[in-house]
Write a structure and sequence with these properties.
Helices cover about 15% and strands about 40% of the residues. The protein is an alpha+beta fold. The protein has one domain (about 1-60, about 105-235): outer membrane lipoprotein receptor (LolB), chain A (Clam), CATH 2.50.20. Strand 3 (about 70-75) and strand 4 (about 85-90) form a beta hairpin. The radius of gyration is 20 Å and the shape is globular.
Length: about 260
């Protein structure tokens, strides 16, 4: 009897280990739907909607997402013009045009609505999270901005449970659902350090059939006002910025950046 049980247990453990080892590759594949190049310039529009769907506020950002967990965000709207946000690994700085000192901030500091500094500056999961596959499930299929939610969940997907590798990220735990065939991100539950569900995210694509690019991330607050924040990626193009652009002491001089 033992001789039959032991091989079975070994096979199950081997399968579980294989699933865990596949998660880094899955995350890299999922990241590619948001990051189409290693170094990228992303024109981003953030819009906050009331619970009834009426518009509230909006802001425009030019985001330079660079390799090695580095990002620079230039604020474009009149109310924030001249302000900059710099992410270097786990360190975040806010640079004000009338200040000679960069201000340390956290990745959870709000920019507008439910969009935090980490939501705007960081578009990769593979660098920040470990995880495991929880289950194969049925999800709503990929949708575009013009599509309403489907009546039923009929799309094969994988449920991944992710835990942060470090404390300097926006969310310490993410429950992420990706398409089984293409590994495109479909939705996510986002948990803060206290393990409280802070937001739910839904990802919108360029096309519903064979999607290739996330065009929008829709965040719904789960703590207080339940407002909806739409993070729309208006354009992307490969761009590697000069090294000094990623130096906070250079940025406090308010140099022209183009």
């Amino acid at each position: 009897m033992k001789s039959k049980v032991l091989p079975t247990v070994c096979l199950l453990l081997g399968a579980m280990s294989a699933l865990a080892q596949d998660v880094p590759a899955m995350l890299k594949a999922a990241d590619h739907f948001r990051m189409s190049a290693e170094n990228l310039e992303v024109d981003t529009l953030v819009q906050v909607m009331q619970v009834d769907g009426t518009p509230d506020k909006e802001r425009r950002y030019k985001v330079f997402v660079q390799a090695n967990r580095q990002s620079l965000v230039l604020m474009q709207s009149p109310a924030e013009k001249g302000q900059k946000l710099l992410m270097l690994g786990d360190d975040f700085w806010l640079l004000m045009p009338d200040s000679q000192r960069p201000l340390r901030i956290t990745p959870m500091q709000k920019l507008l609505g439910d969009a935090s500094t980490g939501d705007i500056a960081n578009l990769r999961w593979a660098d920040d999270y470990n995880g495991q596959t929880v289950n194969e499930e049925r999800c709503e299929p990929p949708r575009t901005a013009s599509q309403a939610a489907p009546a039923e969940a009929s799309y094969p997907c994988l449920h991944l449970s992710l835990n942060a590798r470090r404390k300097g990220v926006s969310y310490q735990r993410i429950e992420l659902w990706v398409g089984k065939a293409r590994l495109e991100p479909l939705k996510a539950d986002l948990y803060v350090l206290s393990d409280k569900l802070a937001k739910q995210a839904v990802f919108v694509f360029d096309k519903s059939s064979a999607p290739s690019l996330v065009t929008e991330m829709v965040l719904t607050d789960q703590v207080s006002n339940h407002k909806i924040t739409q993070v729309r990626y208006l354009s992307r193009k490969p761009r590697q910025v000069a090294a000094e652009w990623l130096n906070p002491m250079f940025l406090v001089r308010n140099p022209p950046l183009d």
